[in-house]
Specification:
By secondary structure, the chain is mostly beta strands. It has 2 domains: about 35 residues, no CATH class; about 100 residues, At1g16640 B3 domain, CATH 2.40.330. The protein has 3 helices and 11 strands, in the order ββββββαβββαββα. The longest helix has 10 residues. It is elongated. The termini are far apart. The N terminus is likely disordered. GO terms for molecular function: DNA binding. Keywords: DNA-binding, Nucleus, Transcription, Transcription regulation. This is TF-B3 domain-containing protein. It is found in: Nucleus.
């Protein structure tokens, strides 16, 4: 994964795009030099399924982390990603460059650590939101991989918050009489 001189993200995705799976099926996809798993999902702007390499969903490494559920302030007008106070001791106390790794790509951002609300600069956070098609209700798991007075590196995992459309007709989950049952 790398960043071009124009600031565009370059992916080093090794999954063969010609391989298809049925909805939600996990399968094996062979790359030139390794074997990777893929998962096909329903969620994308153009209605086409997305394939995700299995390292999109991995156990936390034991490094400092936090999670958040995407709200309006994350993805509309304000475009703010503010980190919780519980993570502040593990983050730089001044503004430093940040690298955010997610789904086989990286984004270079500016981490604004010099005030009480530690956050990313608005423009680069907005690009991350749009590139990853973040929506209300999605969950983000942020892991601090490296942190110093010179730079901070994060690994992010995105868990989609949309409810499967095939279940929406069956239940509404609003009352005890109409619960959502997952087999």
């Amino acid at each position: 994964m790398s960043l071009s001189s124009e600031g565009n993200v370059k992916s080093m995705d090794k999954v063969d795009s010609s391989i298809n799976a049925t909805d939600g099926e996990v399968g094996n996809a062979l790359s030139q030099d390794s074997q990777a798993k893929y998962i096909e999902l329903h969620h994308s702007k153009d209605g086409l399924p997305q394939k995700l390499v299995d390292d999109d969903f991995s156990p936390l490494t034991g490094k400092p982390f936090c999670h958040c559920i995407v709200t309006k302030s994350h993805v509309h007008k304000l475009y703010l990603m503010v980190f919780p106070a519980s993570l502040h001791p593990d983050l730089p106390m001044k503004s430093v460059p940040a690298v955010v790794a997610c789904r086989g790509k990286t984004w270079e951002m500016m981490f604004m650590g010099g005030n009480s609300k530690k956050r990313f600069d608005i423009q680069s956070w907005k690009k991350f939101v749009n590139d990853n098609d973040l929506n209300l209700g999605d969950a983000l798991f942020w892991e601090v991989m490296e942190s110093s007075d010179e730079m901070v590196k994060f690994k992010v995992q995105i868990i989609r918050g949309d409810f499967p459309s095939e279940l929406e007709r069956q239940v509404n989950g609003e009352t005890e009489a109409t619960p959502i049952i997952i087999d």
